[in-house]
Amino acid sequence: MSPTDTLLWVALPYAVAAVFVVGHIWRYRYDQFGWTTRSSQVYENRLLRWGSPMFHLGILMVLAGHVVGLLIPRAWLEAIGVDEHAYHLGATWMGTAAAVLTIAGLAILIYRRRMVGPVFLATTRSDKLMYVVLAATLGFGTLATIQFQVFGDAYDYRGSISPWVRSLLTLQPQPELMAGVPAMFQVHVVSALVLFGIWPFTRLVHVFSAPVGYLFRPYIVYRSRDAGDAGSRAARPGWEGIERPGARPRL
After folding, report:
1. Exposed/middle/buried for 115, CB within 10 Å: 0-12, 13-18, 19+?
2. 3-state SS assignment for residue 42
3. In 32, 42, 206, 208, which residue has its Cα 20 to 30 A from 200's Cα atom?
4. How far is residue 54's CA from residue 39's CA, in Å, rounded to a whole number?
């Protein structure tokens, strides 16, 4: 195992995890007003109405697939009847569909952000960096899937990348598991680590925003303003007089 392997598959993941956690704490403490998506819907809605749902639905499917493929051991899936063939078919074709949906949605959002003037002016440097890294991560992952899973011999990442991820989570890193991983998968992993590293400093923090307080807020009581509920006296037309302090009351 070379020093480069130790740097990439042990030091870098733990450094990114530290930045991810501490960065979010720092951002929440010192930049709560910036903890937002900075929505640009007010500038343009037609492209956003198509791109945003496509991207968010696709990325949720991608995340779900990664959770199953990386965190759930093969034996657990086989215990519930999901054998290698069934898993390969589902991961390949559903993963490809999710990737196409996500990339199509992201392409629409990037086109909108670049070509719609007001939206482009509202784009910050962190937005541009986030879009580049996000697009690279999705692109490398899609290329790896197409190259090895669709047209290749179905590389068994559950025997290398998946146990490597779980070894990091159990604080018993095994970088040697990544030594023989194809380069496209390695690049995908590194780009994903870079994405998680910049995550706390971009608009991606909105992923952890949820209107939890809305569930526990007190009721808002509305009172009717009907004509028959105007108070204890009848309404009088015109302006009512205002008495000056110390003035005699009028008879």
Report:
1. exposed
2. coil
3. 42
4. 17
Residue type, 192: A
- What tens digit of pLDDT does each residue of 168-187 get? 999 999 999 998 899 999 99
Q: What is the pTM of this model?
A: 0.80
The token pair at 71 is 């965190």
Alpha helix locations (H) across the chain? 3-6, 12-30, 46-71, 74-79, 84-89, 95-115, 117-121, 125-144, 161-169, 183-198, 212-216
Q: What is the DSSP letter of 249?
A: P
* Residue 206, C-beta contacts closer than 8 angstroms, at least 6 positions apart: 35, 36, 37
> Do the beta carbons of residue 20 and residue 194 sit within 8 Å?
no
Contact 130, 202 (CB under 8 A): yes
Number of helices (H) and strands (E) in the chain: give both, helices first. Answer: 11, 0
Distance CA 174, CA 160 (A): 10
Token couple for 182: 């194809």
Instruction: Specify the residue for token string 């070894």.
Output: 167
Distance between CA atoms of residues 158 and 174, nearest Å: 14
Helix pair 95-115, 46-71: axis angle to 10 deg = 140
Q: Which long-range contacts (CB under 8 A, 24 or more apart) does 111-115 make?
A: 111/47, 112/44, 112/47, 112/48, 112/51, 113/40
Q: Residue 95 in 3-state DSSP?
A: helix
Q: How far is CA 224 from CA 191, 217, 221, 234, in A?
A: 58, 22, 10, 16
Q: What is the pLDDT of residues 34-67, one digit of tens each?
A: 888 888 888 888 999 999 999 999 999 999 999 9
Sole residue written with tokens 């991606």: 204
Cβ atoms 179, 1 nearer than 8 A = yes
What value does the CA radius of gyration of the chain take, rounded to a whole number of Å?
28
